[in-house]
Amino acid sequence: MTLVRAFLVGGLLCGLAQLILDTTKANPAIIMVSAVSVGAVLSGLGLYGPLVTLGGAGATIPLTGFGHLLVTGMVEDATRSGLFGILTGGFRAASAALMAAIIFGYLMSVLFNPKG
User: Fold this and answer.
1) Residue ranges per structural domain of the chain
2) Which tens digits make up the pLDDT trace of 103-112?
3) Separation in Å, CA 29 to CA 41, 63, 78, 94, 113
4) CA nearest 72: which of 98, 46, 50, 35?
């Protein structure tokens, strides 16, 4: 049942982004930044946490989950380190995912030649 909930929540979030892309003149960059921002705002308001509990990876993998990750890290470090934690929390929380993206992106660029 966990996989079904993750599929439904993730599919709903991605389908909503695709619907916005298809029905507006917004380009993909605006939609991606908006998704991260919406995830951050909903997380700050305490509304995204229950969605993560319900959907698991279906809520954390899309870009809205990245905004949630940043805010969650900031809140955790702010309670632990005070005001300085707001500046460092997002970096600490997202560092492993960002390093993985950099490393795998570099490896793919070395291993494969682009066509065009």
Assistant:
1) 2-111
2) 999 999 999 9
3) 18, 12, 30, 20, 25
4) 46
SS3 at position 43: helix
pTM above 0.85, yes or no: no
**Amino acid in position 58:** G
Helix axes 2-23, 28-44, angle to 10 degrees: 130
Kindly tell me the burial class for residue 34, based on how many C-beta atoms sit within 10 Å of its own C-beta (0-12, 13-18, 19 or more): middle
List the alpha helices (DSSP H) in the chain: 2-23, 28-44, 48-55, 57-60, 63-81, 83-111
Asked if residues 57 and 6 have their Cβ atoms less than 8 Å apart, the reply is: yes
Give burial (CB, 10 Å; 0-12/13-18/19+) of 40.
Answer: buried
What radius of gyration do the chain's Cα atoms show?
Answer: 16
Find the farthest-apart pair of alpha carbons in the chain and give their distance in angstroms, rounded: 50
Written as six digits, the tokens of 94 are 């997202």
